[in-house]
Amino acid sequence: MLTRRALAVAALTVAAVVAPAPASADPSYLTREATFPSVSNGWASVDRYRDLTAEFHDEQYPPDGRGDQDGQRRTFFGGVARPSSSRFLLYSAPGWNTGSKPVPVLLVHGANDNPDRAWANPNEAGGFGCGSASCPSTGLMQYLSSRGYRVFAIGFAHKQGDNYQQAQQVGDAIAIIRARLGVSSVDVVGWSKGMMSARMYLASVRPSWGRAYAGDVRRLVLLGGPNGGYDYPFAHGWAHDFSIWPECGGTVNAPSPHTRMTCFGLYTYHPELSITPTGGWDAYPGQRQMLARWDGVYGVNTSTQDWFTTYHGGQGFYTDGPGIQAAINAGSLIGTIRGTPTPSAVPVYLLAGGSPTIVGIWNETRGPSDGVVFVSSALDTTGVTTVGATTLVSSANHLQLGWATSVMSTVAGWLA
Length: 416
Fold this sequence. Notes:
single chain, nine-stranded mixed sheet, disordered N terminus
């Protein structure tokens, strides 16, 4: 998911002693550092892994702590608020080793999110954190697990991290699941930014040091993914910034299209919050990688302050920023992804929400959207060699795609 305000700008405790897989089952480039058998929100267990590949690099975190790990995730990362990007968590759902379905499922969450809120307890962040005034306490994990699916989920160290590195860790998680269960393939479900790492792994969009796709995905399901990119931060920059800029009261962990902004008469500079690398800072690479221009299709939101300079760059009345094209040039991956075909043997299923009704944010209404991502972007099949199906769930907004019944039943049908 993209985030509740920044991009869209969002107990049951089971203690289970799970017999760990033999160490030899894990690929040699991975090390399992810890296992946690007592996990909140209905999960059976969590393992912390580290990818030993030397080229993994640690990423920058916003210095004010807004991007730090929180809740039980911090415990899983060894009490470290800003863990190394080489580390990741692998969540196992009840029935991970007993479910009747032959092909296990890996869930890949989106930006500024985690496997708990995304897949197991949408109410973890409280009201409106799930895109609705009242949030359920269960999600897609429980829905699939109760139907015999063997479900896993990956949790990333950096909440807005580089999709090249996270795509490698999606491959890591699949390799672990295959070894643990003795299966040849895994189904993958990617939500929002999770589309990036899931699809990049499948298409071998990787750094020079990265491992190529291992031919181990049966089906790929993408929920609200910006397959055609998105430009929300620049198209609605003024409203977007008030949730981010600290002098204006913002605290959301999401990037700003600006580097300078006036709040209550004070002109301030925050390069560490910029979506474009500025002043030695680059704390939001995963967001920049999803950018694409939509002004030629749906225009720009001209009702917001400094709309022209926000989108095209320059000094406005209250803000200053480099503009969307500079950010795209600094590292968007949308063109690369669309230009790299997915394997023909793997059907790809694309689902879009059609309700731009997320309370508390400036919803994306320039064209049909789920409040953040345009429907035409979420259902963009450019570069998808084999399309399994495309579906619009008109009743769901972006933050409801992990728990809305109509979405979950569609996903289960695709995985059957």
